[in-house]
Amino acid sequence: MTIPAYQNYNGTPLIPAPPNLLIAPADYNQQYQDQMNNALRLYFTLLNNFSQALATPDFGPTTQRPKTKQLTGQQFFDTSLGTVGKPIWWAGTKWVDATGTAV
To answer: Any idea where the domains of the chain sit in the sequence?
Structure first.
């Protein structure tokens, strides 16, 4: 069985590029270790931000809005606003509705 390859608009097969990984020199000098530490720090910071976004509640009354570590653009459906609730977003310093009004 042949697995179909992705092709561009003129039929040329697209071959995915290998990942851009750091290449260790033979002596593992401090510069390589610093680069690797920075790459790992960035990776785990992004992973932590992603997991925190998943762990925060995404709906509830006003009293249950996330109060710490909000990500800009994070959505929360506030069930206390209006008659049936209202979606709001964290704008970096305050919660806003779809019109940009602070709520």
So the answer is: 58-96
